[in-house]
Write a structure and sequence with these properties.
259 residues, alpha+beta, D-amino Acid Aminotransferase, Chain A, domain 1, D-amino Acid Aminotransferase, Chain A, domain 2, 2 domains, 5-stranded mixed β-sheet, globular
Length: 259
């Protein structure tokens, strides 16, 4: 794992990263897991300076910022060298606002290959082979994305999304023990929604066939209702309630301009 990097992808609006503290907490936890001694205050300072000098000072305000942080192995025997190497790329945002998407979304599942349940199962890191394969498989089969199973055969996540299921009015999402990436928006929904309770439980393929609704989350794109999975067609009544509650949290805590 030491040869890999950690990834943090942020939505930057008016020069400020949305969900900044959640992103920094996730990155700090990931660095701790690969034995890099850095705290959240140091990370925040580094990211804000990166935004100022490399982005905002060049006239950029709204963009997608992808940061890769690599452990600098030379630091182990040359302490004066920085412990981390930072790389960043910028792309235009698809949308500043989190809005309800009405385009049809079809989901499939990646066959054969499964995600390992190991010490790095929840990290968003640069070894994205299984996720790249999932996205390629989805495109080859005229779908928007593909689910990834873990080695136990239950749902982990999708190529760029966390997964949520609705059954009998209750919202479920796979626990971290089932190897999903620890998504920023996943964390926000689990901890910030006052009106909707979300339970963590293992989700099987059969659970998806029996589900009433299915939706996906991503910090850049927001909440995405799934219309169809392997011939099963879903409603979106509860998903719209989750989306409304999410918009309220975003408006109150992160800015009305985002909704």
């Amino acid at each position: 794992m030491s040869a890999l990097g950690l990834i943090e992808t942020m939505k930057v609006v008016n020069g400020r990263p949305v969900f900044k503290n959640l992103h920094i907490s996730r990155l700090a936890a990931g660095l701790k897991s690969i034995n890099v001694p850095i705290n959240e205050y140091q990370l925040e300072d580094r990211i804000l300076r990166l935004l100022k000098y490399e982005c905002v000072d060049n006239g950029l305000k709204n963009f997608r910022l992808r940061i890769e942080v690599h452990k600098n192995r030379a630091h182990e025997y040359m302490p004066d060298i920085a412990a981390l190497k930072w790389n960043c790329t910028l792309r235009p945002l698809e949308s500043v606002k989190y809005t309800w998407n009405t385009d049809k979304f079809i989901l499939t599942i990646l066959p054969k290959h499964k995600k390992m349940i190991d010490a790095f199962k929840n990290l968003k890191h640069t070894d994205r082979a299984i996720y790249n394969e999932a996205l390629q498989y989805a495109r080859e089969n005229d779908c928007n994305d593909a689910l990834v199973l873990n080695e136990n055969g239950t749902i982990a996540d999708a190529s760029i999304y966390n997964v949520f299921m609705v059954k009998d009015g209750i919202v479920y999402t796979p626990p971290l023990a089932d190897a999903p990436v620890a998504g920023v928006l996943r964390e926000l929904l689990l901890t910030r929604l006052d009106t909707i309770t979300i339970q963590e439980k293992s989700i099987t393929i059969q659970d998806l066939y029996a589900a009433d609704e299915l939706f996906l989350t991503n910090a850049l794109r927001g909440i995405r209702a799934v219309d169809e999975f392997d011939g099963t067609v879903y409603e979106s009544t509860i998903t719209k309630q989750v989306f409304t509650a999410f918009q309220q949290v975003v408006s109150e805590h992160f800015g009305e301009h985002l909704v």
